């Protein structure tokens, strides 16, 4: 995949501007310059112990064993967490600062003639796994993104220069350059350090220890800088036993100031002053308050926002959906899409990768929607990104090869003549061939030899173009989320209603979905999709007026099952004629409470619309999995053809009613 670009500016989603506007020309020019300079410098170089060949220069002077020893010595000798957390305030102890800007973290300092230490402790409303992904990175793009999110304009650049694993311990050599606001024309300060993370059950420790600048060859800044030395920092992160959705975080940083006979040693050339390094440590402690903001920023990035351009006209003189307060021009919650007032909503940062470009902006979200977001599960979310169909790998099979493989396997496993006949009928419909009697609308049995001959002669599927791989809700949602009478975030959200609901339900009645009973052809389509692509389950589901009905399924026990419409994925799939791809349904406010997620562990959903003769969407070919995954173009091509075949079978059922 292409390297992700990091957009460095923050866009303010003000109420009189479109949230999805592009950065200004000046901002884009500045961003492009920063990105081009970063990509052309050693900041972008990342070396791993496994990828380095004998002809490549090693990016660090120290051997892996020495790096591991430095990290372990720092963790064992300096990061004594019981002493750090238990040392009382007062003379000789911690001094709590009164200038802490937030109630989430308390910041304290401790100093003597040789050491200066800083501590920040507090609670972050998230899981340990979620916070680990936020504070620990292993590639340069994520490293830059993380530090820029934490330190904002103070951060100038950095890189992951080297990664390795030794004795079960993952190590990374990193660099980071920060602004130094000292006297006029103060030079930036650069920190070269080894980063290690130690995982335990529902907890982790992270330690970062300074390295000599001369020992790091890659990832360095080309600017004239001052070097940070003799600094050790660490995070101790533990699940809060009192609250399952909160994490106890303690940050500790220490600067060792070398002395001989009580006299400070001369500062090395180009080294940062003690005051500059103390200021940097104190700023790192105070920035721990940003962790809570960044957790919510990533969570909002998983959500699909309402499209302002399509829903703005309904906001004029609209009362707040929560308190009923009427405004001349109401504000809009970008999550549910309804009119809200200032008292019931607030602006929050949001980050999301769209086509491998990071976009950070502000969005207005109402309080009930925010509660729903915080009740979702985000442990498995690596990066908040818009869904997209990824290009095929160079070694990937073509759609024709995939389909041939699926049907050959099905034919070899078919034990009954009825099964073989169903395979032949589905194969004819997938290929768009008339039956042997010349009537494409009638059934027709096909024996094994004829089916194999059809595969060899007629199977030639072109790969869909990028325009043909469009997805619903990839960049925005054209409909609001239905408001509910209760603001309880654990209650199922009401389902949205399409504009053509009356025509759609009439088409469902014509198809006699409930009278179909078992369909060998529809069941075979579900089985082929599950076996070929490894889904947990595939089903043909119809979203009727009040219920969703499972017409066919790769797991026979679910066939014929009904569920409330708000408890089904396809209630949102029918809102568009395009396929719906949900990478993390457990983190999406639309789906995180439905039974498939809560009881069956669904972590991936892709639904392909099933359409009637008049073009209305009846339901979807639903593909579910127990872990998130990417969908390649060839896979998308086959699944879209399977959905078209299932649609044809439903339409034929209506014609023969």
From TrEMBL:
It comes from the Eukaryota. InterPro entries: GAF, GAF-like_dom_sf, Znf_FYVE_PHD. Gene3D superfamilies: 3.30.450.40. Residues 29-58 are annotated as: Disordered. Residues 29-53 have a biased composition (Low complexity). Residues 522-647 form the GAF domain. This is GAF domain-containing protein. The lineage of its organism: Eukaryota, Sar, Stramenopiles, Oomycota, Peronosporomycetes.
């Amino acid at each position: 995949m292409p390297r992700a670009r990091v957009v460095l500016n923050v866009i303010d989603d003000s109420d009189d501007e479109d949230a999805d506007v592009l950065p200004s020309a000046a901002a884009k020019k500045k961003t492009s310059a920063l990105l081009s300079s970063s990509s052309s410098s050693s900041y972008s170089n990342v070396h791993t112990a496994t990828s380095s060949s004998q002809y490549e220069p090693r990016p660090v002077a120290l051997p892996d064993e020495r790096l591991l020893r430095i990290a372990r010595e720092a963790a064992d000798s300096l990061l004594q967490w019981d002493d750090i957390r238990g040392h009382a305030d007062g003379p000789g102890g911690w001094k709590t600062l009164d200038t802490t800007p937030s109630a989430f973290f308390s910041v304290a300092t401790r100093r003597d003639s040789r050491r200066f230490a800083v501590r920040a402790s507090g609670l972050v409303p998230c899981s340990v796994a979620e916070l680990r992904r936020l504070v620990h990175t292993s590639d340069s793009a994520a490293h830059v993104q993380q530090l820029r999110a934490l330190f904002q304009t103070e951060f100038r650049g950095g890189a992951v220069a080297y990664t390795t694993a030794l004795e079960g311990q993952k190590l990374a050599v990193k660099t980071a350059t920060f602004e130094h606001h000292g006297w006029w024309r103060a030079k930036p300060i650069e920190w070269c350090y080894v980063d290690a993370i130690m995982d335990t059950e529902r907890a982790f420790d992270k330690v970062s220890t300074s390295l000599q600048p001369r020992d790091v060859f890659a990832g360095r800044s080309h600017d004239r800088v001052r070097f940070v030395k003799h600094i050790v920092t660490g995070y101790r992160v533990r699940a809060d036993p009192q609250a399952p959705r909160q994490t106890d975080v303690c940050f500790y940083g220490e600067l060792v100031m070398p002395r001989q006979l009580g006299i400070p040693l001369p500062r090395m050339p180009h080294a940062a002053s003690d005051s500059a390094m103390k200021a940097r440590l104190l700023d790192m402690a105070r920035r721990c308050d940003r962790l809570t903001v960044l957790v919510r920023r990533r969570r909002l990035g998983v959500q699909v926002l309402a499209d302002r351009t399509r829903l703005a006209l309904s906001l004029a003189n609209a009362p707040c959906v929560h308190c009923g307060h009427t405004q001349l021009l109401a504000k809009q919650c970008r999550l549910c899409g309804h009119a809200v007032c200032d008292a019931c909503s607030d602006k929050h940062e949001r980050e999301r990768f769209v086509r491998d470009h990071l976009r950070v902006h502000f969005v207005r979200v109402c309080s009930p929607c925010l509660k729903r977001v915080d009740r979702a599960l985000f442990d498995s979310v690596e990066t908040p990104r818009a869904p997209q169909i990824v290009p095929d790998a160079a070694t990937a099979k073509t759609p024709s090869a995939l389909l041939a493989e699926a049907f050959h396997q099905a034919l070899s496993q078919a034990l009954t003549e009825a099964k073989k006949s169903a395979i032949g009928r589905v194969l004819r419909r997938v290929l768009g061939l008339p039956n042997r009697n010349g009537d494409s609308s009638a059934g027709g049995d096909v024996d094994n030899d004829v089916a194999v001959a059809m595969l060899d002669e007629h199977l030639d599927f072109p790969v869909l173009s990028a325009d043909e791989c469009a997805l619903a809700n990839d960049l925005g949602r054209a409909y609001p989320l239905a408001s509910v009478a209760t603001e309880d975030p654990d209650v199922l959200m009401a389902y949205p209603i399409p504009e053509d609901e009356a025509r759609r339900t009439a088409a469902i009645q014509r198809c006699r979905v409930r009278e179909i009973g078992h369909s060998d052809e529809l069941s075979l389509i579900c089985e082929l999709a599950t076996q070929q692509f490894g889904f947990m389950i595939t089903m043909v589901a119809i979203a009727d007026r009040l219920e969703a009905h499972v017409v066919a399924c790769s797991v026979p026990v679910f066939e014929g099952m009904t569920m409330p419409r708000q408890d089904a994925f396809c209630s949102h799939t029918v809102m568009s004629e395009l396929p719906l791809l949900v990478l993390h349904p457990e983190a999406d406010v639309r789906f995180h409470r439905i039974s498939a997620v809560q009881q069956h562990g669904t972590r991936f959903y892709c639904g392909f619309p099933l359409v009637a003769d008049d073009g209305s969407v009846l339901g979807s070919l639903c593909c579910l999995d127990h872990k998130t995954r990417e969908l390649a173009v060839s896979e998308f091509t086959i699944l879209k053809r399977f959905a078209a075949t299932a649609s044809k079978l439903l339409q034929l059922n209506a014609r023969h009613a």
